[in-house]
Design a protein that fits this description.
The complex is a heterodimer of chains A (365) and B (393). Chain A is of the alpha+beta class and 365 residues long. Chain A is built from 11 helices and 10 strands. In chain A, the strands form 3 sheets. In chain A, strands 1-4-5-8 form a 4-stranded mixed sheet. In chain A, strands 2-3-7-6 form a 4-stranded antiparallel sheet, with no helix packed on it. Chain B is 40% helix and 12% strand. Chain B is globular. Classes of the chains: A alpha+beta (365), B alpha+beta (393). Chain A: InterPro entries: AcylCo_DH-like_C, AcylCo_DH/oxidase_C, AcylCoA_DH/ox_N, AcylCoA_DH/ox_N_sf, AcylCoA_DH/oxidase_NM_dom_sf.
């Protein structure tokens, strides 16, 4: 049966990650870093991966990982979302890792162990907006090398290796220094996207069934993204409540006005619902049953608008302060909005769901 | 023997002494009460055995497996859910012995004389008066939205006994005999055409002081117990996927492809997802309770279901198109139970409008969440130190 609660181990993991992020990922330094030219935080990544072993949660122990499940990875993502942490966890430790878990052979195994250690960062070279089951662009494979250009590749700038789908249907591994990675100016400063140009880049084939690997990777990405969105929405609610208890206008705390109380109570309700949906998706991914696709589609279709709503409410209720660069609410709004497109929009997931639960669209004329 | 094993063996003894198929329904229910298996957490002699509340499930499962009759908890829900815990908490020994057994067996139906036309969400502002006359109280006033009043033998009643103190302090709680002269029950025909509720007019109703529940002027405190139990009973059930109102509209969608439009498709999918997520939230709440870690999530369940029921049934009326212009039956009827699935979409749409009003309006519940869960400041209270008689009405 679906277990929607957090185990004691998961609670301990959450506390440890939160402590680390409190010490090493405060909002002011994240804001400063976004302007530094190196948006990713390699020190934080090292602490999370080499220090705590978190990059290998989804990888079996025999393959160099921690042998944990999506439930634990989801807890980590909740905390990373709560801190808008600029690390390639979702892209490398979840999405690229899941793609490799679908592959067989030495090349894939070697890469999987490297990603699990965290010393190598991987990125799936599929545009961030592609959802499970949706279309994505592939490059040309010729004489052992790749040719072409891909855009919207999340965290490519931090990656050591790219997993690239080619037109022959296979998935290839390419070293980052064999390609040209040009950062694009991204809406989400903490999970930037880049253009990747392949000009005869040497490539190692990791599987001939690239479609299955990509699909598995994007499904896990979409399902666990709901946990990041949960953390993000929770931060937005908690910070807004805290601020509105302190901020006084018309000789009263602003949080005592009923119009605002109702909005915050409504948001709380959405966050509570998002937690149930996100836990359900994480548990379904961990157990891998028939219901996984429904659980992922439901979680992502529900959580994405909630995260955006939470960040938008946080901005509006912080009012003028929310519009400033110094206050971190903009980081959350940018992440939430980009997340609402990542791994399939809510609308795309609803369409997927229509097929899964037999609620078909009208016949087109 | 563990408590659970003891309950199981007592249940088997009850079944052996009163085989359900050979015993009359009422006789079986009386025997079950006397065996302490009605509410296992109630005291001995009052339908229980002082066992942990969670073990009721053990007894219920054994009895269900044996095909034993139940006491029709939906029909007597007000008595079970509200009157009984209040009588247990605040009643005299004599009151408990007199009322709990026929309440539980369903021989005596209860109703709740709380709401008033002039009070609404501000329940403590109620104006029904009870004036002491020797050993009796004389009650005058009007109550409203009273489910089951036309079937009820008894009522729990709150009335004002002191108009010179602030509103919460001048209320006293009584048990009212619905057969007394001066109690007049009139059907209140509602938006759906039927009369599920009543207005109750109380004119010179004489209630002996021995049917007072709790101290004079402490009625609000007693009523809190009743109201707390009312909210707990709403929204705690386990439902399968598509188990709520989303079920009928999803079936209509599948069976009637000619009705489908793109706009309705998007809205249906969105509501299907929200209903599924609300179901998962309820399931998560249930798992928390089982694990002994109750969370504040329960406060929100009624809010979520009220809105969903209204939106889903509203969508269904639109989906039906020309049929949505019709209504199944406007005949004034007096249903004993609210039946959401036995009637058409139009009925569901209209009846679900009450979901955000009954048992605490959504606006009041949002305040409760904001104040008790999020810790936001309460509204300024201008009525706090004002005598009831001086309040604006």
């Amino acid at each position: 049966m679906t277990d929607l609660l957090y185990s004691e181990e998961e609670k301990a993991l959450r506390a440890a990650v939160r402590d680390l992020l409190t010490d090493h990922c405060d909002a002011a330094s994240v804001i400063a870093r976004t302007e530094s030219g190196t948006p990713h935080d390699p020190e934080l990544w090292k602490a999370l991966t080499e220090g705590m072993g978190l990059a290998g949660l989804l990888v079996p122990e025999a393959q160099g990982g921690q042998g944990a499940t999506h439930r634990e990875a989801a807890v980590v993502l909740e905390e990373l979302g709560r801190a808008v942490a600029p690390v390639p966890y979702l892209t490398s430790a979840v999405v690229a890792t899941e793609a490799l878990l679908a592959c067989e052979g030495d090349a894939a195994a070697e890469l999987l162990a490297a990603l699990a250690s965290g010393r190598t960062v991987g990125a799936l070279a599929v545009a961030l907006n592609a959802g499970p089951g949706g279309a994505y662009k592939a490059v040309r494979h010729e004489d052992g090398a790749l040719h072409g250009e891909l855009t919207g590749i999340a965290d490519a700038a931090a990656a050591d290796v790219l997993l690239v789908p080619a037109e022959d249907g296979a998935l290839y591994a390419v070293d980052a220094d064999a390609v040209t990675i040009s950062p694009q100016v991204s809406l989400d400063l903490t999970r930037p996207v880049a253009k990747v140009t392949f000009e005869g880049a040497r490539a190692r084939r990791v599987t001939s069934d690239g479609a299955a690997a990509v699909r598995r990777a994007l499904s896990a990405g979409a399902g666990l993204l709901a946990s990041e969105q949960l953390g993000l929405a929770e931060w937005s609610l908690t910070e807004t409540v805290r601020y509105l208890k302190e901020r006084k206008q018309f000789n009263r705390p602003v949080g005592g006005f009923q119009a605002l109380k109702h909005r915050l109570a409504q948001l709380w309700l959405e966050v509570v619902h998002t937690r149930a949906a996100a836990r359900n998706a994480a548990d379904a991914l961990a157990k891998g049953g028939d219901d996984t696709d429904v659980a992922v589609a439901v979680a992502q279709a529900y959580a994405a608008p909630v995260a955006v709503h939470a960040a938008e409410e946080a901005l509006q209720l912080h009012a003028g302060i929310g519009m400033t660069w110094e206050h971190p609410v903009h980081l959350y709004l940018k992440r939430a909005k980009a997340d609402s497109i990542a791994y399939g929009t809510a609308g795309a997931h609803r369409e997927t769901l229509a097929g899964l639960v037999d609620l078909q669209a009208p016949q087109s004329n | 023997m563990t408590v659970a094993a003891e309950l199981r063996s007592r249940t088997q003894e009850l079944l052996a002494a009163h085989p359900p198929l050979e015993t009359g329904r009422l006789d079986f229910l009386k025997a079950r009460f006397d065996a302490g298996l009605a509410w296992v957490h109630y005291p001995e002699g009052l339908g229980g055995l002082g066992a942990p509340r969670t073990l009721q499930a053990v007894v219920d499962a054994e009895l269900e497996a044996a095909g034993a009759p139940d006491n029709d908890p939906r029909r007597i829900g007000i008595g079970l859910g509200m009157a009984a815990p209040t009588i247990l908490g605040f009643g005299t020994e004599e009151q408990k012995r007199r009322f709990l057994r026929p309440l539980w067996t369903g021989e005596e139906v209860w109703c709740q004389l709380f709401s008033e036309p002039g009070a609404g969400s501000d329940l403590a502002a109620l104006g029904t008066r009870a004036v002491r006359d020797g050993d009796e109280w004389v009650v005058d006033g009007q109550k409203v939205w009273t489910s089951s009043a036309h079937l009820a033998r008894w009522a729990i009643l709150i009335a004002r006994t002191d108009a010179d103190v602030p509103k919460h302090r001048g209320i006293t709680y009584f048990i009212c005999d619905m057969t007394d002269p001066g109690v007049e029950v009139r059907p209140l025909r509602q938006i759906t055409g039927e009369a599920e509720f009543n207005e109750v007019f109380l004119t010179g109703v004489r209630i002996p002081d021995s049917r007072r529940l709790g101290e004079i002027g402490e009625g609000w405190k007693v009523a809190q117990t009743t109201l707390m139990n009312e909210r707990v009973s709403i929204g705690g059930m386990r439902i399968p996927r598509e188990g709520g109102m989303i079920g009928p509209v999803s079936r209509t969608w599948r069976e009637r492809p000619e009705l489908r439009t793109h706009d309705l498709h998007q809205r249906l999918l969105k509501l299907w997802i929200e209903a599924e997520v609300a179901r998962l939230t309820g399931e998560r709440l249930r798992q928390q309770l089982v694990a002994g870690q109750p969370g504040p999530e329960g406060s929100g369940m009624k809010l979520a279901f009220a809105r969903l029921n209204q939106e889903i049934s509203g969508l269904e009326v639109e989906l039906l198109g020309e049929e949505g212009l019709l209504y199944d039956d406007w005949t004034m009827r007096r249903p004993e139970l609210v039946d959401f699935t036995g009637r058409d979409a139009g009925y569901r749409y209209l009846r679900s409008k009450g979901n955000s009003i009954e048992g605490g309006t959504s606006e009041v519940l949002l305040n409760i969440v904001a104040e008790r869960v999020l810790g936001l400041p309460s509204e300024p209270r201008t009525d706090k130190d004002v005598a009831w008689k001086d309040l604006a009405r």
